[in-house]
Amino acid sequence: MQPSHFSPTSTDAHRFTQALAVGAAPDGTEDAQATYQFRTLWLSDIHLGTRDCKAEALLDLLRHCHAGTIYLVGDIIDGWQLRKGWYWPQAHNDVAQKMLRKARKGCRVVFIPGNHDEFARDFHGLHFGGIEVLSDAVHVTADGARLWIVHGDWFDGVVMHAKWLAHLGDALYIFTLTLNRWLNQARHRLGFSYWSLSQYLKGKVKNAVSYISSFEQLLAEEAARRQCEGVVCGHIHRAELRKIDGSIYANCGDWVESLTALVELQDGTLQLLMWKPSASAPVVLAELPPGSASTGQAEAPTQPQASHVPCAS
Q: Half-sphere exposure (CA, 13 Å, Cβ side) for 9?
């Protein structure tokens, strides 16, 4: 399956380069040390340019983590919402600056656009401030596993064939997030913890559960067809790391609600992390040890070990 051709408008292209250009200057923070060192870091569905993007939490992760390669797996910039009205607060600016600074300091940063930043797909093969733009990619882990990296919207029939319905669904999702924000403000005042209305609805609606299962199966099958041992994707805002019919299926989650990332340790171990800025360490939600591409299943997660290294962020 190949992406549909998209010709960005001049406004789209201007906003894309403008969003990257705002990070041209240093972000004003100098991190003496990074707490965690990873071989690879995957992030998706950040949705910069929206009010529900948790940019401050992401910035905290970027300050504490160093990786040799960072893959931005789509929907990094929310072009759909920016077309409706420009929203770009300082925290979103800081995230862009941090990414560009990492690229300048030698980190390989690869941007794989999704449907919300599809305007960038015509820039395939180009570099902006050291950030490489690709439609998809193949990553080879330390233990030799080939992972196909793609946002995932190519496998969403609504996005590909009924874009008006996709935009309607996005509007309903934004409305749900707004309700969720108000609800959790009230819960916080009453002393209750965070609760996700959108995740609750996804789990209760039969069609949503069926859609997620089909999406995951299709991605795993396509990765195998491409002679890869697994796939890393985003799009559905559902963090996951497991085996499907022998193939690794990894979904980075999002930075709207779940605050999750996929990482590869130096030995090829894959971990799905949930980042909590106030916590002493990220929560490891799932883990696949080296060699899992051929034999293993997800194991009980272990906490990542803090490794103080010179920060290249």
A: 6
